[in-house]
Amino acid sequence: MKLPRRALVLLTALSAALAPGAVAAGTAQASRAVTSMASMGDSITQGFNACGFYVDCPSRSWSTGSSSSVRSHYRRLREVNADLVAHNVSRSGARVADLQGQAERAVAAGAGYVTVLIGANDACTSSEAGMTSVADFEARFRTAMRTLAQGVPEATVFVASIPDVKRLWEVGRGSSSARAAWAALNICQSMLARPRSTDQADAERRDRVRQRVADFNAVLERVCAEQAGCRYDGGAVFGYPFELSHMSRWDYFHPNAAGQRLLAEVTYPPAGLDG
Question: What are phi and psi of 9, to 5 degrees?
């Protein structure tokens, strides 16, 4: 299956400065200009469960991972800039409320390129009632983005959309192993509780959780647009039809190495190159 080529961003100047015949040279020049990058987010960006049982595996992170099996943004950018240093400031279990502290760490690292993937834990809670409100999500995300804009004003910030957690239910509900893991580990019960139920109440609950993710993504897009150096992925991650084979077989929730590689593919190359 051919992966979509999405317009993300490395340096905002590229979109105006590059002529059609200068894309390759411009990419190399822009990559060399960035000497430090940082990844903000949660367990997805930590590579949780991607190389061991219930452990973080940042080497397989889609953003700043060093593993050749994933070909992260960091690995791709290092092909033209061997001096690039990566800082993974994400944390497993993080919600948008934790993003401010991560933004401060990205600023302290002097990051010239920052990736953000946050919000899954704000929707994937032990019950529907535990989800973060859209208003709170927006306020906290805007605060973190302003910290980046003020602390590293020349940096490019790439914001990935939150994956579609209902898609996870769709591809996993038929698997007895997935259902057992979701129940035993209490995973994303706001969406994944009673996975085989066809009751109207359960169907409506799943739709409400999916809508909350969609609302969070609308916030990511809107707030990102407020900052000149920020670019949103246009819903690329949310819209990608991932399969159960992209998930860890320990919890059927977090991306395995193949899933991390997929995330890197879907979100690369940085925009400004494709218009």
Answer: -155, 145
How far is 41 from 20, CA to CA, in rounded Å?
A: 34
Give yes or no for residue 167 having a pLDDT over 70.
Answer: yes
> With bands split at pLDDT 50, 70 and 90, how would you rate the model's confidence at 31?
low
Find all residues with CB under 8 Å of 19, minimum gap 6, and list them.
none
Q: How far apart are CA 254 and CA 182, in angstroms?
A: 11
Has residue 28 got a pLDDT over 50?
no
Per-residue pLDDT tens for 77-98? Answer: 999 899 999 999 999 999 999 9
**59, 53, 81, 80: which is closest to 71 by C-alpha?**
59
* Buried b or exposed e, range 9-37, using 16+ CB within 10 angstroms: bbbbebeeebeeeeeeebbebbbeebebb
End-to-end CA distance of the chain: 23
Mean of per-residue pLDDT scores for the chain:
89
Neighbours of 82 (CB within 10 A): 8
pLDDT value, residue 140: 98
Specify whether the CB–CB gap between 110 and 153 falls below 8 A. no
What is the mean predicted confidence (pLDDT) over 226-241? Answer: 96
